[in-house]
C-alpha cells in the first residue's frame, strides 16, 4: 500500500512537469506445430515529457535510453540480436522487426551533415556495447539506404539513416540480462519468466530493442519496446496433452508488476483464437500460490502465407564465389525491396550480377548500388520490384574473395567470414513486413600467419639482389685478376683455418670454452699487474 | 578440329621455311599466329581468371565490371578495386557498345602487329652489328608462339596493348626517333606510372646534349599531363580517379596475389612499417635508372632491355605477359652471349616456376593442401630469376667492356674481380 501511495504521489508530482510514463507487458504463446512453441515477450515503455520543464525524473522509462536518445539526437533506433534461423515455411511470419542472424542496428539521426551522423553512429554503437553488453564495434555500417530495409524504418527522408549488420555476433545470457535491466519490473511480473537456460536452449532466439522519440516543439514522446521471441522444440519432455508455464520456462509466475499499466498473457489456439489472461486482475497470485497456465498442444491449421527468402553460396575455391538470393512470392502480388550488404572482404563482379525469374520473366527492377568510400566499409545492393503471385526470383552475385592484410583477419581466420543476410521488405495491399534470408559463411584465402618475418626477409633480400650488384658495378671497376704474390691472403687463411681447427678440437675433446676464456682473462689480468 | 588445323599450319610453316619464299617468310607465320590466338580465345574461360595472367589493372573482366558501372550511371571510382583510367573505360565502353565482336580481332591484330614491330626492331639492331643476315624470323616466332602471349591475347589481357606500345617505343628507339619515343613513354606512363623510368633511355638519343634530353623529358611529361587532362575531362571534370588509378599503384593499396614481388610482403608487413616500406620501395625504384644509365653508356639497346625488365619486375600488379616481349628480344644481344653466367639456371627457373605457379595456386586455393607460402615461393623464385637475369646483363656489359679494352689478351675463363675505380 505504501508503495502504491508513493507511486501515486510521484505521478502527481511529475504530471506538474508535463511528464507521464506508461509500461505495458505482454506474453504471447502460440504453438506452431506439435512439438514447437513460439513465445513472444513484448515490453513497451512510453514517456511523455516537456523538454523545457523536464525535471530529470524517471519512473518506469530507463534513463540510459533517454540519454542515448538525447545525446546522439536519435530519432529512431532498432537493435536486434538473433541466433538460429526462422523457418518461414513452418512458422509463418517472423517477429517484427525481423532480425537476421547476428546483430543488426538501424539508427535514424537528426543531424546537419553526413559526417555528424557518421560520428554519432560510431559513438552510438560503442554506447550500445555498454548498454546491451554486445561486442559490435566492427559492425559494417551502410550510409542511408534508399529503399526500405526494415518495416519500422520507413521512407522518411529528412533524417540520416545508418544501417549495419554483424553476422558473426552471437547473442547470449548477458544480452538478456542487460535487456531485463531496461524494464520497469525486473523481478516481478512477466519478466520473471525470462529465464535464460530455457530461452537459449531453443531452435530460434531473437531479441530486439526499438526506441523512438518524437518531439513536437518541446513536447516529446519517447517509446521503447523490448522484445524477446523464441521458438522452442519440445518445451516439455513429458508426454501430456498440454504444456504448462512451468514446463516451458522452468519458472512459475509468482508475482505481479504493480507499476505496469497492463500485463497480459495471450495463448493462441488451433484456429487462431486468442485466449487472454490479464495478470493484473489475478488477486490471489503470490510466491506460495503461483499462477499456472496451460497451453494446448495443437497442430496449427491456419498458417499465414509469407514470402520466402533464402541465400545460398556457390563456388568451390577460396578465390571466387557466387552468392545466390532466392525469393519466392506467396499467393498474392507484392512489391518487394531487397537489400544485400556486401562486406569489404569480397569484391563484386558488377557486370555479372543478374536476376532470373520464372513465370512472367524478370519484372522491371529498380536498383541502387551504394559504395562507401572508406577502406573497410561495405557496399549495399538494393532492388525494388513487383512480383506476381507465386513467382520465384533468383539474384546471382558473383564475387572475388580478397586476400586481406594480416591484421584484418579475425583470430580464427580459417573459420571464414560472414556475408550478412539479405533483407527483404514486402509491401502488400493488406500488410507490410520484412524477412531476412540466412547469412553466408565464406572461406577467405588466408596467408600463413606464422611467418611474417620470413616473408619480409625474403622480399627484402630479393630487393637487395637488385641493389647490391647495381651499387657494386657502378662504384667499382671490373678487372681481370692479375697474378701476383699473395702472402698476406695466405697467412690470413692459415689463421682462419687454425682457429677452425682449434674450435673443432675443443669441441671433440669437450673442452669448456668458457674455461679457456677465463684462462685468457686471468692471463691478461696478470699482464696488467706486471705493468 | 581447331587444334588439328593449328598443327597443320605449323607443319606447313616448317615446310615452307625451307623454300624461303616471301610467302613463307611473311604470311604463313602471321596466319599461324592469328590462328593459334583465335583457337585460344575459344578456350578463354579456362584462363580468364588465372591469377598469373590477370591483375587488377590488366584484367578485361574487371574492365567490363567498371564499364557496366558506367553504363548504369555510377561512378566506378567509388567502388573498390577499379583501377582503369577513364580513357580506357570510355574507349572500351565505346568498343563494347558499337562492335563487341571486333574486340578479339582487334586484340589479335595488335598482338601480331607487336610481333611484327618487335621483329623489325630486332632486325634493325641485328643488321647494324651483323651485316646482312637477319634475325627477324627467330624473334617473330619467339614472341608469336610464346604460350603466355597467346593465352594473354586469348583472354584479352590489356598487357597486349602495353606490349604493343613497348614494341613501338623500341622500334622508334632503334630507328632514332626520340620524340616519338618520348611521347609514347609519356602516354604509357599516364596509365601505369611505372614505365616513366624508360625515359632514361633517351639520354643516348640526345647527341650528348642535356638540353635536348631535358626537352624530351618535358615532351614526355607534357604528354602524361595531356592524358591525365583527357581523363579528367572524360570523368565529368572530377579528379576522383587519381586515387584509384595512380595512388593505388604508388602505395600498393589493393594488392592481391599475383606473379609479382610485393603481394605477400604487403599482406604480412606490420602496420606501423607499411608506410616506410611503401615509400622506400617507390623511391628506390625511381632512383634505380640513374646508376644504370651511368653504367651502361655504350649500349642503348641493352640499357632499354634492363630498364624494361625493371619496369616489369617492380610493378605492383604484374602479369607473366609483361616480360614476354623483352624475353623474346634477348637473342639480339648476341655479342654478350658467351659471357652470360647463369643462362641455363635462369631459363630453367623461369620455365619451372611458370609451370609451378598454377600447381601451387591450386594447392593453396582449391584443394587447400598447401598454404600461401607455396605460391609465394614460386613467385619469389620467379622474380629472383628475373632479377638475376638483369644483374647478369649488367655483368656481361662490364665484362664485354673489358674484352673490348684488352681484346685478345684475355681467355674466355679469365677470372674477374672488382677494383676501386
UniProtKB/TrEMBL annotation, chain A:
Q: Which UniProt keywords apply?
A: Membrane, Signal, Transmembrane, Transmembrane helix
The signal peptide here is: 1-18
What does the record list as GO biological process? attachment of GPI anchor to protein
- Give the transmembrane ranges: 453-479, 491-508
The GO cellular component terms are: GPI-anchor transamidase complex
Alphabetical list of InterPro entries matching this protein: PIG-T
**The protein's name in its UniProt record:** Phosphatidylinositol glycan, class T
Q: What organism is the protein native to?
A: Caenorhabditis elegans
The gene name on file is pigt-1
Automatic annotation (TrEMBL), chain B:
Q: Name one Pfam family in it.
A: PIG-U
Q: Which GO terms describe its cellular component?
A: GPI-anchor transamidase complex
User: Which superkingdom is the protein from?
Assistant: Eukaryota
Q: In which pathway does it act?
A: Glycolipid biosynthesis; glycosylphosphatidylinositol-anchor biosynthesis
Note the coiled coil stretches, chain numbering. Answer: none
- InterPro entries per UniProt: PIG-U (IPR009600)
Per the record, the similarity remark reads:
Belongs to the PIGU family.
Enumerate the UniProt keywords alphabetically.
Endoplasmic reticulum, GPI-anchor biosynthesis, Membrane, Transmembrane, Transmembrane helix
The protein's name is: GPI transamidase component GAB1
Ranges of biased composition (kind: Basic and acidic residues) = 1-18
Q: Report TM segments.
A: 102-126, 138-162, 182-204, 213-233, 245-264, 276-296, 302-330, 342-362, 374-397
Q: Where in the cell is it found?
A: Endoplasmic reticulum membrane
**Which GO BP terms sit in this record?**
attachment of GPI anchor to protein; GPI anchor biosynthetic process
- Bilayer disposition of the protein: Multi-pass membrane protein
Stretches for region Disordered: 1-20
